[in-house]
Amino acid sequence: MMRRPLLLVALLLAVAGCTEHLTQPGTCPTYCPGGAAEFRDTVITATVGLDSSFSGYVGNGSLLSVLVSNGGGYGETRGILRFFQRGDSVTAGDTLRAFTVDSVKLDFTVQARDTTRNNLVIDLYRLPLSVDSTTTQAELDNLMTPDRLIQSTAVPDNQRSGLFHVLLSGADLQKVAFVPTDSTRLLVGFRLRGDGSTAVRIGAPASGSDGPEFTSYVTAAVADTLVRSQIIARAGDLALTARAPGVPLDPLLISVGGYPVTRSFLRFTIPNFLRDSATIIRATLELTGNAPVFGIPADTANLIASAVLADFGAKSPVSATRVGLSPIISGAQSVNIEVATIVRTWQGKAPLPAIIRLALASEGATFLVPTFYSSRSTSGPPRLRITYRPPFSFAGL
């Protein structure tokens, strides 16, 4: 009678011995990867001769800053700000009334300045409306005569940025008085002086809260004292930087920013083992500058790398989400940008072109103009350092 229970126990032990414990690594070779994960590194250099720089993307009047400098590494630049029309009447009650100007205030913002130079002075000039985006720095200098000087504004040596006010009243109002040919538009030029070569960035209308404003405090020709005193505020509607002629781009370098605004395209040849089934863990774009970036000390600008959606040369559209970013600071030379999100778009059945576009976030509105060695350079060409994982091999599948 004891034999049947013993046989039953033996059968249960045999079944338990064949059970696979899927939660315990290494005990089920049929379904688990055949070994530990493997990670590899590879370096891919930009395809020789296929990287390129193109200029002329952003118009002078669309920039976020006006650049003003007086030589040295900054070059010679002058600033121009124009304001919306003020008009020649105000609404008092329900009627348009003529007015007299009691005082005016011109506000502008210094976004950044070179604090290594002292005794900085910004001279403001009244300019004719004939000045436009084609006016050169030399032509503007000829218009900045003593009789056109509105006011000179000193910038404290310890002040790097801030809002500045130019206040005019009494006889000084004639400096900004309008005549019929002015169409009630005010055009102001900025020129810089200091102890040696120096520079400032002044906020343009496109910069938002840093934009300039021209305010007139007036008295309307009406007896009602409640509406007699009025304020007319006008924002800027145009900002320009007048520059000396630039230096042509070096064909052995790739350039970003500056003016005319330059963008660069880097092209890579991706091996099949990366295109097909590898998992991209990390991808770093390594750029080597030909010289330290020059600009206002401690000033920064963001260098943006973007995935290209279709290859149309200089007009290639880019992705707004597949981007990498690295800050550029004055004095920097080599730059590394994480671009794994871009490189992953080069994989799969419908890959994007293996191209990276480089651009500055503040195009044309900074003195920082990074230049890097290209694929044609004898040393330091652009390259991608990629960390990837080869596909697992599964036993029994």
Describe the structure.
This protein has 397 residues and is mainly beta. It is built from five helices and 23 strands. The strands form five sheets. A six-stranded antiparallel barrel has the order 3-4-14-13-7-12. Strands 2-16-21-18-19 form a five-stranded antiparallel sheet. Strand 5 and strand 6 form a beta hairpin. The protein is elongated. About 6% of the residues have low confidence.
- What is Rg? 32 Å
Query: How are the strands ordered across the major sheet?
Result: 3-4-14-13-7-12
Q: Tell me roughly what share of residues is in helical segments.
A: under 10%
Mean pLDDT: 87
**N- and C-termini, Cα separation:** 48 Å
Low-pLDDT parts are 5-26
Counting DSSP H or I runs of 4 or more residues, the number of helices is: 5
Q: Which structural class do you get from the secondary structure elements?
A: mainly beta
Sequence of secondary-structure elements: HEEEEEEEEHEEEEEHEEEHEEEEHEEE
- Count of strand segments: 23
Specify the overall morphology: elongated
Portion of residues in beta strands equals 35-45%
The major beta sheet can be summarized as: 6 strands, antiparallel, barrel
